[in-house]
Design brief:
This protein has a domain of 59 residues. The protein is 62% helix and 0% strand. It contains six helices and no strands. The protein is elongated, with a radius of gyration of 35 Å. The chain starts with 23 loop residues before the first helix and ends in a 7-residue tail after the last helix. The mean pLDDT is 80.
């Protein structure tokens, strides 16, 4: 076994964990602010720029605003393609899950077919006009 893995590091050496900054409270406050501003009607790009001006990293600012933008869609009345597709899928599935009720279109089709056959028979039974 290699001895370098069993030795302890120098206690005076800085640990990488010493540079970790806990910004969870500030991040929570910024996301709540972004949520309130989005619900008030502000643009997501404006909010991102403002967060960057306040000292947030550009990627962090974009991620926070984008997450809140997605979370507040329903409250802002935004209709997404996914919501429309979900509603259409639900209606489609509901149309075919009626049990015995789904037989009604088949019965209606059979009635129309019988009517068409009867109409053809009736038309064949009519006297033809003699050729002139």
């Amino acid at each position: 076994m290699d001895q370098k893995y069993l030795t302890m590091s120098d206690p005076n050496e800085k640990s990488p964990f010493d540079v970790i900054v806990d910004d969870s409270a500030a991040r929570e406050q910024a996301t709540e602010w972004a949520r309130d501003e989005l619900l008030a009607g502000r643009n997501a790009d404006e909010l991102t720029a403002e967060l960057i001006e306040q000292g947030w990293d550009e990627d962090d600012a974009r991620l926070m605003v984008e997450a809140e933008r997605k979370d507040t869609r329903a409250e802002r009345g935004v209709l997404t393609r996914d919501a429309v597709a979900r509603g259409a899928e639900k209606a489609y599935r509901g149309a075919f899950s009626g049990g015995w009720v789904t037989g009604f279109p088949t019965i209606a089709s059979a009635r129309r077919l019988m009517h068409a056959i009867a109409s053809m028979r009736w038309l064949k039974g009519l006297p033809r006009k003699p050729p002139e």
